[in-house]
Write a structure and sequence with these properties.
single chain; 93 residues; 3 helices; globular; mainly alpha; two-stranded antiparallel sheet
């Protein structure tokens, strides 16, 4: 019972983090399409607050010129960490 609740919580947390990163990527493309985004909007600020701790440490290693690959690397790392946690919670080690 507790194990299944914990597995569900891990999956939900990692899914929300992945969706937040994808939303941030999509928001970064909107100014190129001529859409103005208010960086001080509470939802935008919240999105940055939950994704910055994941993306900022990766930027040092994943930015090449004008290209920032930190969202891709973050999504891959989140998936790997999620799988390791799920295997550990299921007793797969």
């Amino acid at each position: 019972m507790i194990g299944s609740v914990l597995l569900t919580a891990v999956n939900v947390i990692f899914q929300v983090a992945a969706l937040a990163i994808l939303a941030r990527v999509l928001l970064s493309w909107l100014p190129m399409a001529g859409v103005q985004i208010d960086p001080y909007h509470p939802l935008i600020r919240f999105l940055y607050q939950i994704t910055d701790p994941i993306l900022e440490p990766l930027r040092r290693f994943t930015t090449f010129g004008m290209m920032d690959f930190s969202p891709i690397v973050a999504l891959i790392l989140l998936q790997v960490i999620r799988r390791v946690l799920v295997m550990a919670l299921q007793g797969g080690f």
